[in-house]
Amino acid sequence: MTAERPESIAIAGHYVRLEPLTRPLLPELHGAIAHPLVFDGGFGGGPGGLRTDLAGFRDWADAYVQWAGLPFAVRLVGGPHDGDLVGMSTLGDLNLEQESAHVGWTAYDPRVWGSAVNAETKLLLLGLAFEHGFGRVKIQADVMNVRSCAAITGLGATYEGVIRRERRRADGSWRDTVIYSILESEWPRVQAGLRARLDGRGAEPVRYRIRQSH
Fold it and tell me: How many degrees, rounded to 5, is the angle at CA 78 between CA 72 and CA 84?
């Protein structure tokens, strides 16, 4: 089966709603993720990539976001923060002939770390990929992003290895990239695990935690 490119449309879950990310949404995204805690782990080029002013953040996003893929803004559903934009994630590097894709370019407001947001976002994006005929989905992280690596392992993805000196970070240092993947044959197991994690959280909407200072 040859993979098909999914439509760029909103996807609704129980805790989050994924909305196609567009440039008019960048001010909201800036408010959610332009924070040292987000970039310190290696996201967006690492600490040197952080732009706390909106103009600088727009320039960063123009270069970083994979606009040619399917970037999504992540909004909360229900509760006191209903509709708040709390992050982004992307289904990108779409290779229809090879039936491969990449779920990445992911960051969230630290106030929703440890909540149901990442698990449901990944459930929706991975489901989107496998429902459209992709046979392999890659997920990767900067080797220094211990938090992201743990989260990817927690999804049930398979560790493949490390690509050394794979790209430069924003500060000029070289990044080693940790590679994981999920195959179509593994998706039922991964999907069941994610659903069980989410079911264990109950029906209550996501609430903000206190955002730490840097």
Answer: 45
Q: Are 154 and 164 in contact (CB under 8 A)?
A: no
- Would you call 190 helix, strand, or coil by DSSP? helix
Whole-number Å distance between alpha carbons of 185 and 15? 27
Per-residue confidence band for 210, with pLDDT thresholds at 50, 70 and 90: confident
Average pLDDT, the chain: 95
Q: Does the model's pTM come out above 0.70?
A: yes
The answer to whether the CB of 37 falls within 8 A of the CB of 44 is no
Closest to 34 in 3D by CA, of 121, 109, 141, 145: 109
Cα–Cα distance, 3 to 88 (Å, whole number) = 24
Distance of CA 117 to the CA centre of its chain: 10
Q: How far is CA 201 from the centre of its chain?
A: 20
